[in-house]
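Lab notebook: predicted structure, single chain.

Context: the supervisor wants predicted structures on file for every construct in the current expression panel, including those that have not yet been purified. This is the next one on the list. No modifications to the sequence; it matches the entry in the shared construct table.
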Amino acid sequence: MTGSQALRLRTQPGAITSPPRLETERLVLRGFTRDDLDAHAAKLADRDVVRHLGGHPFNREDSWRRLTMAAGQWPLLGMGYWAVELKSAGRMVGEVGFADFERGMTPDISGVPEMGWVFESSVHGQGIAGEACRAALGWIDATYAPPDIPAIIAIENAKSMRLAERLGFEREPDALYRDELIALFRRRRPVR
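Prediction complete. Output recorded below exactly as produced.
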């Protein structure tokens, strides 16, 4: 069975169609709501946040499209992105999750749960991203147990690369995405 076939099987009756609520010591991972748009748009308008996501701040419309895409993967694939909220403040500070973006890159990573994360600059360096990513990885390991999970990271994004390594991802040869090199990381399923 190919990766794409495995993903299609998740949309059968009884598949997960909405994000489960996950909690950690400091965070709640939950589904996105319309009320998240202001915080989401502010995060994606921050030049420090987007410098490795194409380098240009997102406008409100593009932020809305990203938010709806994050939410829309759940009913299609049985996985997607969570909004990450600080328990202490009750506000969304980032997003983390898994998707299949059908990127058309070399090597091809379509059909498998690609992991990604984006956090507002106010929480950088506090371990928030790592905490959220570990919760998401725990969920996908328990729910689907994929043999491996890829993540792509901009070549210049050393902080995200260090986070990926702390999460158990290993760097592979760089990939070609939209005619540019991008760092490809892969996490193999932990042996139990």
